[in-house]
Structures are given as structure tokens and as C-alpha cells.
Amino acid sequence: FNQLALGIALVVLLALNVSSYLQIRSLQKQQAELAKQLQSGQTVLAMLAYPNTESRPITADTISGTLLVDKSRNTATIIVWNLPQLDSTQTYQAWLIDPEGNRTDAGIFRPQADQPYTSASIYAHNLTNFVGIGVTVEPASGSDQPTGDRVFKVDF
Fold first, then answer.
1. By C-alpha distance, which of 141, 142, 69, 133 is closest to 103?
2. Could you give the C-alpha distances from 7 to 3, 4, 13, 15, 90, in angstroms and in order?
């Protein structure tokens, strides 16, 4: 009987350990998402404090928002309301557009399910070389060049 009780106790302890591990992983993921949201919010506030920050409206279909651009600091931030959720095989990808129309990857982002808006910060080596930003729907890992549907484009 003692060996059976010991075996059951070990199985229960193992199950609790696995459960605790999964809870910790979930909390770490939530913490990373909150840190990302905080970073994005701080970037927006800092950009709004810069006198050189320009604001451009974003409008397309059911979405609306603002593009904040500060070329002197090589920073742009997209803030969009009502950006549709995508399935796990897709993501949104931002593209910097040069005067010839060439696209340069500016990063991927996904809307937060619990937020009414989506924000994405873009840092470029030399933002003055570009004339706009576009966003497309791409595979989850992103693309080298735009392949999916265009969500919006903003000139600056």
C-alpha cells in the first residue's frame, strides 16, 4: 500500500509541476505582451512631445487611425482602430515606400484581441529616404516583398 500511495503522490506532484510550468509560461507571455504595449504607448507619448512629429490620417474600409512620423528621429508609429484579427497563419506587415515605389520591410505586427486599437512602432536607419508606409496581410513569418492584400497606404 505504501508503494501505491507513493506512486500516486509522485504522479500528483508531477501533474502539479507540469501545471505550474504551463501557468508560468502563460504569465511570461502575458508579461511580454504587456511590456510591448507599454513600450508602444511610451513611444507614442514621446513622439507627440517632439515638435517635429507629423500626424497623417489612416483611412481604409472599416479602419481608421493615425500615422505619427518624425523623420529627424527616424521613427514612425501606426495607430489603427478596428484592424481585423487574422488567423495564426497570417500577420500584418508594414512596408516603407521609397520615391521609386520600392518596398522595404518595416516589421510585422498583430492586433491585440483585448485592445480596440493596434499600434506598431517603426524605426528606420534613414526615414528621409522614404515617402510613405503601406501595410499588407502576409504569412505569419512575414515576406521579403509584399504578396498579400493591401490594408492601407499613407504618404508622408
1. 133
2. 6, 5, 10, 12, 45
Tens-place pLDDT, residues 117-156: 899 999 888 999 999 999 999 999 999 999 999 999 999 8
H helices of the chain, in order, are 2-49
Q: Which neighbouring-strand residues pair with 80?
A: 65, 118
Question: For the chain, what's the residue count?
Answer: 156
Element spanning 96, H or E: strand 90-97
Torsion over CA: 54, 69, 154, 44 (sign): negative
> What end-to-end distance do the CA atoms of the chain give, in Å?
77
Query: Residue 106: how many CA atoms within 13 Å on its side-chain side?
Result: 27
In degrees and rounded to multiples of 5, residue 90 shows phi and psi of -130, 160
Are 56 and 67 in contact, with CB atoms under 8 Å apart? yes
Res. 64 pLDDT band, cuts 50 70 90: very high
